[in-house]
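Sequence, structure tokens quoted for completeness.
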Amino acid sequence: MNNVISPKQLRPLALSSSLVSGLLLASTAQAGTVTDVDLTSAGIILPTTNISLYDNAATGVRLSGGLTVHGFAAGTRNANFGGTREGAQPDKGPDWWEAAVIPSLAGEVDLPESRGTLFGGVSGSYGLTRGNAHGDVDGATPGHPEEARLKKSYLGWRSGDMLTDSLGEDAITFSFGRQTFQFGDGFLVGDAYSDTGKNAVYYIGPGDEFQSSAVLSLESQGWHGDLFHLKAHQYVSGGSDQDTSLNGVNVDYTLGDRAKFGAAYLDIYDSDIDARDGMEVYNLRAKGIPLASLPGLALGGQYVYETNNRQNVDDHAWYGQVTYTFLNTPWTPEIAYRYAEFSQGYDPLFYSFAGGWGSWYFGEVVGEYMLFNSNLKVDMVKASIRPHESLETGLIGYRFRYDETPQGISSRDFAREVDLYADWTVTDHFSISGVYGVAFPDDGAKQSGLYDDHTSQLVELFATYSF
């Protein structure tokens, strides 16, 4: 076994694809926020297959396919606040670009006598990183890597009309194999694949699947439940690959369009990471509209507790957010404030990008390349407008502080960051996003010896075309 791996090495920016696919969530103009009741749905996430290839109503056999293409480019100045930290990008102004292609194929067969539907699918990915010889700001993809691999392969069954009179249509779903699974808007579980080193495409991150899984889900009358087994395989550049296996249960209850409540329990019974091996994880969450007379006001939050008596683990994380949307105002302005806290030894496990910018990567400069949801306190203020139904633009401000000051550092203040973003859904198939981020180091960063005192700047452009 090994010591706790850094969240940077586990970095799962392959973004939860619960709404569309990969970063399409970030570039959908009305992606929503984590206080939206219907932002994401718990359960397995199937690949995007919008093209009908075969459909025989007489036999109940259907076959569909899809192809998603991602492109990303970034330019930086004074990366890592102008410092050079061990294992990170030695160039103080790296520019790089990435591309990924994701083909998918899915099939369904209706069983006779209304006994449900069998389904299955496969998807692959090909990705490459070019530009700076060390790749991204973290230097996590050096040497211009590229990789083609199997992404998903799964089989399953759903109940169809078999239980319509009692539980509802498609009330029960069972699936197993290499697939994506999430709950709780990806705050804890949503992305289990690391796109570093030979895997390339550090930012796009086309992988998000568990290496193996078995998931039994129930959906009925506002209730959703999952019983699951998950195994994640994490590639570690320059070290031994690491596996984590767990069993768990998740429950959600949705009260119309007003509120959603959830809870989950994870038993991590085997892991190559010492602190995880034997860990138990508890999760509580709630969000919704508290006042019917004030529909623009939404609240939300989650709490996670991690314990492991074998490894003396006793850690927690939580966030609370208030969002107000001016529903009857031109351009639909929206403002939000979030406070998030992650204790010193907290393990963020398999968090993802399920809630748009700032969720759950806090900042395109600091949250992507410096601090990774452990030993961290974050204040976030966000303001956005929608000049058109296909366009959203906004400004996000962050204040980053250590939860506990590391050895040799006297200040908890790490940095401040401001991000200006725009998401444009050009057509039903094509989306584009742009971000300018600037971060200012505080004493906690300067005293670490890993960073300098310069202002970091970053410009990003991301595009997706889905057939």
